[in-house]
Amino acid sequence: MYIIPSLLCLNGRCIESAAEEPRVLCIVQDTTSSKTVNERLTLNLPASTTVNKLYEDVAHKAGYVNGTFCLGCSNTTDSEMSLVLSGFEAGKKNFLQLTDKDGEQPQIASVTDSSGLDDSSQDRFIGPLPRDGTVGCSSDYSSPSYSYSSILNKSDTGYVGLVNQAMTCYLNSLLQTLFMTPEFRNALYKWEFEDSEEDPVNSIPYQLQRLFVLLQTSKKRAIETTDVTRSFGWDSSEAWQQHDVQELCRVMFDALEQKWKQTEQADLINQLYQGKLKDYVRCLECGYESWRIDTYLDIPLVIRPFGASQAFGSVEEALQAFIQPETLDGPNQYFCERCKKKCDARKGLRFLHFPYLLTLQLKRFDFDYTTMHRIKLNDRMTFPEELDMSPFIDVEDEKSPQTESCTDSGAENEGSCHSDQMSNDFSTDDALDEGICLDNTSSTERVLKPKSSLTFELFSVMVHSGSAAGGHYYACIKSFSDSQWYSFNDQHVSKITQDDIRKTYGGSSGSRGYYSSAFASSTNAYMLMYRLKDPSRNAKFLEVGDFPEHIKRLMQREKESEEQEKRQREIERNTCKIKLFGMHPVKMMMVENKLEVHKDKTLREATEMAYKLMDLEGVVPLDCCRLVKYDEFHEYLERSYEGEEDMPMGLLLGGVKSSYMFDLLLEIRRPDQVFQPYKPGEVMVKVHVVDLKSESIAAPVSVRAYLNQTITEFKQLIAQATGLCAETMRVILERCYNDLRLLSVPNKTLKAEGFFRSNKVFVESSDSTDHQAVFTDSVLWKLLDRHGNTIRLFVSLPEQSPGSLANRTSCPKASQQQQSSSTSDSQKSSEHSDFEHIESPAQEPDAASQPSQTENCTRAASDTENQFPSEERSDSDVNNDRSTSSVDSDILSSSHSSDTLCNADSGPLPLANGLDSHSITSSRRSKAHEGKKEKWDTTEEDSGTDSEYDENGKIKADSQYLYFKAEPYSQEDGSGEGQKCLLVHVDKRITLAAFKQNLEPFVGVPSTQFKVFRVYANNQEFESVRLNETLSSFSDDNKITIRLGRALKKGEYRVKVYQLLVNDPEPCKFLLDTVFAKGMTVRQSKEELLPQLKDQCKLDLSIDRFRLRKKTWKNPGTVFLDYHVYEEDINISSNWEVFLEVLEEPERMKSMSQLAVLTRRWCPAQMKLEAFREVVLESSSVEELKEKLSELSGIPLENLEFAKGRGTFPCDISVLEIHQDLDWNPKVSTLNVWPLYICDDGAVIFYRDSTEELIELSEEERNELMKKESSRLLKTGHRISYSPRKEKALKIYLDGGPTKDPGQD
User: Fold this and answer.
1) Which run of H or of E encompasses 231?
2) pLDDT of residue 1267
């Protein structure tokens, strides 16, 4: 699962850290033209990029108008969704196809169109050159924003293409071939759909009929195939599955036969495409022949015989090899019924009848047994334009005196040729594989004698370009109307020549031996279609005037629908679509919408549309609303449109564009107000008034100014808006974060001072002496500096504290003493504010009303009655639903804690603080702790010393007087009880060490005895451990959880310990949190674990009867030996996890050269798995493994078979699948090679007795066992099947969609 990185907020927008954010590599193939189909556009985009932004970037790079093309990239309808959430994979190549939209070619962006481009980009044009004509010629429709070319209409070939839904090129190639077959098209037109019999959406013949009518009569360049695939019962996911075109042909023909039952077309497929052949075996001693007749729809031709180094050179050679008989001799002898013994025999195939339309499949996909991968054979194989099939026909009688006939099996096998020379595509269970979910039915037997002329004419070549892993199909088809060859490549139809056909033979120049196909062209013919040359049968296409009446009515409906779509597209082209914002007066929040308005609508009409869109009817009067030009990013009102209410929106917005560089804001006024005019060139300034007496900063007042105004004029403008005195006014510009600039030069212009569209200034006007001080030393600067760096945090406190800090902490010294002591501290810098008792301007009371620090200390020591009971969870709760005490075990452990708490055993103690409003500018440790030089560190690395103390034992935080203010607030949980929480305002430049010290009075224990966890959006908690780092990575409203427990010292790591229970239903059980240190041996860590295990987990163990081992998610790994040293022999990190395994006998693992595997016996006769047992091997030898298993189980060595478990421990698998699905008895001699790769401890090995037969179950027993296994595996969270992912079967559903078997997974 991909986890979105943390987000940074900038001007209200969330952006990801560029340094950490993964990127999505998009490779776009432009398939909209034959001239660009070989071009690739590459974009490397951040993972957070929206789908809408992807379209914009592709449009810019390809030179198209956005919105006029489609990308086969996402099924989501939300264009604002990020690429990752839309299914793109970060860090991998994502291949996309740029295709036509609504059957029309993308509109090429005009070179003169400046929409969406800045000045620097208007002088260059990026993208492909204009195709088939010049953009913007006199015959084209043009507008200020678009240029339309006549190429958008039907191709000049007169043929219409098909839109590729995503990976449906194989479907498009077959559909175009069928469309260009006169006999098939004419027969389809003669069939009439009956509305009363079936839903037209689910009728495959009707949707094919509609498609063919559109292909013949449409004016579009390409049309969609979604209606056809919907009639197949396919959903959108099927568009992303590429299948074999020959497989589709068979499945579609079977579906049509089922749909055409009881109609005139019932036998159409057989009449056109079905042939017959004889499968025979002849005894070479007596001449007796046994045979059967099979039917076929296509002939599969082998490219290269198995084991041969040379491929067949032509289709004729492959056909000859297809009927070449093989001799059955030796161990393959045939049992002759006449001789009553095994004899040598000849087995083969003979063609009895060729179909009218002959289909040849060139079997280019094979399996390489060396690499164990599918491969594609790209060898050269020629095929003639006219193919004479007479040499391959069987001229003998179908029966002879020495033969015995078998029943004709053609109907039973659904057109499959059953021969050992043929591939598994033609097995007896093809009816199941082909995907027709109905029982097979027999067809009428027909005896067809060979014709006198068997010359076939080539008319379709279906070409595959790519590898066995995937590729692209297109069709080269000859029109029987003009004998011209055309290329049908999805949307593109173009004329081609015989030379182009010859290029599909495949192969390369010269011979490279067996591996020649690896270096050959990957574009070659895959399926050929021939038509018998018979003038008496050869048909011509029906012309429009000769269409049956029902086709004419269908054509009229489609024509009207197409005209309606065209009108709608024309409206879309003239519609301005722009973002609309508005502050809703009731919801009191900024609302965003999309305003779609025709370019000829006036501003007044558009305002009324926006008024209704914002749902303001009955809330405010229409005349109190107006539309203004708005920049949402800078929150800047660019201009208003006074006197232009009757201006068309197309002119106001600069034309119809795919995107605009600005937005619109629906501004609302009160009835007693008057709209302020906004003129172009003005800048917006948000003015915050600062009151030094109350130390407050007021909410902003908006003021508009001009960049050429001077500072003096600007002060007068502010004085009018705020009522302040301009003479004593100080104006401070915040140009960017924490960059404060005093505007002190009267005649300097705003532009020279760095003002932009939207600006933020602070003003102060008083008669105090503060204005005489240097700005960076003034009270004003310190107040603004604190204001700019203060963040608000929500801190959740622990349920109880084991001791009261009031019993050990003395009151901090007075602020004057703090300041005097800080003057000698070298770490005090001018950027750090020593301004004390500054409260938040809007929420905090006056400083005079604040209690002194001495009072706060007194209250902290005495006010112990205020307790905040609530439920607390341990820091292991992120991964476990196990509630524990908030007090970690290590806080009570004397082995690591130098501050043992005296009150740890006295039960729950109150917090040491009343949690009233408390302002701390510098918290000191108690005098009892001042002299300590305890070094403690939480960094994960050895470098650096994140110690809370300096070399003299003095607290480092004493040198920094950064703002800290905490006050209690109650957060209601579901139970009605409030969680103890603090609302903390703190300067984010404070270090984590100082932050923890400031929290001491509220937590009730020293900062060394509690931990700080940062809570992220998904409620995951991560401990903040680097004490010398500041809170600069935190932002407003971040959540923090405080948990009791000793903080880590330098070189220590917090470790989660889980118990490994190999034979339990849940083998991974959380035990406790502990601490391991660098340099500690495994045995030392076990010694320290013993008392913790006894106290917290009630496990009373001997040190030699348990082991620690590596934990990778739920998988057990390397066994750690007692002498191993952490960080030297064992890599350890923060929040590390480790398994503890209880041993039934003394440890057998003594050396790293040994290998510990977990074995489990499978008993097929009982249909059960025995318990896990560990086997320790001295080497990685398979022979040793078998010997150990034989000793363990008593199975003879020669009968023992084993297999490696799959998936996550415990590698659960259904007992119904284990016997067949695992790779039993791999042919390897060592365990550390493919396919086992067992190189570490913890691997799961299943073993069995090969002589033990699998028990036979009745159907009822099998169903009952299946339910039990499904329930068991679902409870353990494991998949029911671990079989390798299989290619999705190609199915066409005759009932409109798949029905899921409840018993299936």
Assistant:
1) helix 226-231
2) 85
Q: With contact defined as beta carbons under 8 Å apart, do 594 and 638 qualify? A: no
Question: Out of 243, 353, 418, 472, which one is annotated catalytic?
Answer: 472
Cα–Cα distance list, 1207 to 1193, 1212, 1213 (Å): 25, 8, 9
3-state secondary structure of 602: strand
Window from 196-210, 291-305, 579-593, 697-711 with minimum mean pLDDT: 196-210
pLDDT at 792: 92
Write the pLDDT tens digit of every residue in 99-154: 887 767 788 876 443 333 333 333 322 233 333 333 333 333 333 333 333 334 56
Cβ proximity of 352 and 274 under 8 Å: no
Measure the CA dihedral 770/772/776/778, to 10°. Answer: -10
Give the C-alpha separation, 817 to 215, whole Å. 92
C-alpha to C-alpha distance for 62 and 54, rounded to whole angstroms: 12
**Edge-to-edge, what's the strand order for the sheet holding 790-796?**
918-919, 964-972, 978-987, 790-796, 1038-1044, 1010-1015, 1021-1024
pLDDT band at 600; cut points 50, 70, 90: very high
Can you tell me the distance from the alpha carbon of 945 to that of 828, in angstroms, rounded to the nearest whole number?
20
Amino acid at 518: A
Q: In this model, does residue 974 exceed pLDDT 80?
A: no
Q: Beta partners for 580?
A: 593, 664
- Structural element, H or E, at residue 1060: strand 1052-1060
Instruction: List, in sequence order, every residue forming a beta bridge with 1081; answer none if it has no partner.
Output: 1125
The pLDDT mean for the chain works out to: 76
Give the Cα separation of 829 and 833 in Å (integer): 8
**What pTM was computed for the model?**
0.49
Q: Please work out, in degrees rounded to the nearest 5, the angle formed at the alpha carbon of residue 168 by the alpha carbons of 162 and 169.
A: 65
Which residues are paired to 576 by β-bridges? 597
At residue 665, what are phi and psi to the nearest 5 degrees?
-120, 130
Cα 1069 to Cα 1059: distance, rounded to the nearest angstrom: 5
What confidence tier does 77 reach under pLDDT thresholds 50, 70, 90?
low
Given the structure tokens 């269409």, which residue do they identify?
Answer: 547
Residue 169: active-site member: yes
Cα distance between residue 391 and residue 319, in whole Å: 10
**The sheet that has 1115-1120: what strands, in order across it?**
1068-1077, 1052-1060, 1136-1142, 1106-1112, 1115-1120
What integer pLDDT is reported at residue 475 of this predicted model?
Answer: 96
For 853, list phi and psi in degrees, rounded to 5.
-65, -30
Give the angle subtended at the CA of 1086 by the CAs of 1081 and 1088, to the nearest 5°. Answer: 100
Question: Which segments of 852-981 does DSSP mark as H helices, in order?
Answer: 853-862, 927-930
- Which residue has 């927008």 as its token pair? 13
Burial class (CB in 10 A: 0-12, 13-18, 19+), 742: middle
Residues forming a β-bridge with 630 = 637, 663
Using DSSP bridges, classify how beta strands 289-296 and 403-405 pair: parallel, antiparallel or unpaired: parallel
Distance of CA 831 to the CA centre of its chain: 45
Within 8 A by CB and 6+ apart from 1223, the residues are 1203, 1204, 1235
What letter represents residue 1177's amino acid? L
CA 110 – CA 116 distance, rounded (Å): 12
- Quote the tokens at residue 870: 């609530």
Q: How many helices (H) and strands (E) does the chain have?
A: 23, 53
Q: Which residues lie across from 368 on neighbouring strands?
A: 373
32-41, 649-658, 1012-1021: which is most confident: 649-658
Residue 731 three-state SS? strand
What is the distance between the alpha carbons of residues 553 and 547, in angstroms, rounded to a whole number? 10
The one catalytic residue among 26, 169, 336, 625: 169
Longest dimension (CA), the chain: 130
Q: In the annotation, is 472 catalytic?
A: yes
Give the type of residue at 611: Y
For the stretch 1236-1259, pLDDT in tens is 889 999 999 999 999 999 888 888
Mean pLDDT for 1115-1131 is: 93
Average pLDDT over residues 23-49: 81
